[in-house]
Predict the structure of Winged helix-turn-helix domain-containing protein.
Amino acid sequence: MLDSLVTSKTRIKLLLKFFAHANSGYLRSLAKEFDESTNSVRVELNRLTDAGLLLAENEGKTKVYKANSKHPFYEEIKAMVSKFLGLDDLMERIVKRMGEVQMAYIIGDYAKGIDSGTIEMVLIGKDLDREYLEFIKEKTYEKVQRKVNVSILENDPGDIQGILVFGK
């Protein structure tokens, strides 16, 4: 889907990261999160910044990137990413009803920009409502025609390979 419009897998990951939610990130953390070289991430960050889609702000010696909400195509890109993920409604419901969700990651094919038909997520939090999760997974399938697999962890192991869509 997105990979037919955008040829760079790294650029797709960056668009998903920054336009799925109000995320921000810096070069080294993004490279680690995407399991990509800092150079390939830097090239795409520069392209997206030059196009005005991302803003870069200095925090000390670190340059932090985030989506430019004032860009003319911001809402369209955000809607396209949201539709690609099919998770905007799911994330909102999970965060409101599941309990103390600390972080949510999209992993697997969707994190790589590939629409395989199965969305894989990792939720991190304590005492999450697993019954509600089963209910919302079925509703999501009815709505977006994609299977949702969710793993729940109480603590962040620190090595999850995917896109952080909720939390810090």
Q: What stands out?
A: The helical segments are 2-5, 9-20, 27-34, 38-50, 74-85, 88-97, 130-144. The mean pLDDT is 82.
